[in-house]
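TICKET: design request
STATUS: open
ATTACHED STRUCTURE:
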């Protein structure tokens, strides 16, 4: 079965950087669309960045130029490099995978079927 395990979250000062990782298993990693979403308590989940199954990348307007999404198919791992973090980036971050999801510029995505348990990012 599909498993997604995030890591790399933590507490960082404004202006700092973090790199999130998501290890995938139970599916053909290279053929899936992969994404990062974030959600604060009481708010809806929003797309942050995604890699479509054709390799195209998209970003939310709020993170474009600061965050970079990438993946290593050989390691079945998805990454999110986050630079110039600010307090508004404080959220729980979730990795997502789906065989047929599509994401448009702005990280507006059709439904993803699988999510990890999340990793907390706190920017002070």
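STATUS: resolved
RESOLUTION: sequence designed for all positions
ATTACHED SEQUENCE:
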């Amino acid at each position: 079965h599909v498993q997604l395990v995030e890591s790399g979250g933590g507490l960082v000062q404004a202006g700092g950087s973090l790199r999130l990782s998501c290890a995938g298993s139970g599916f053909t990693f290279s053929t899936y669309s992969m994404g990062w979403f974030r959600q604060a308590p009481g708010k809806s989940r929003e797309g942050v960045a995604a890699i479509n199954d054709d390799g195209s990348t998209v970003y939310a307007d709020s993170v474009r130029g600061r965050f970079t999404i990438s993946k290593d198919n050989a390691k079945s791992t998805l990454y999110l490099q986050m630079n110039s973090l600010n307090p508004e980036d404080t959220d729980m971050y979730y990795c997502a995978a789906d065989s047929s999801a599509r994401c448009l510029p702005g990280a507006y995505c059709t439904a993803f079927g699988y999510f990890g348990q999340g990793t907390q990012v706190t920017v002070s």
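CLOSING REMARK: The mean pLDDT is 95. The CA atoms of residues 7 and 55 lie 23 Å apart.
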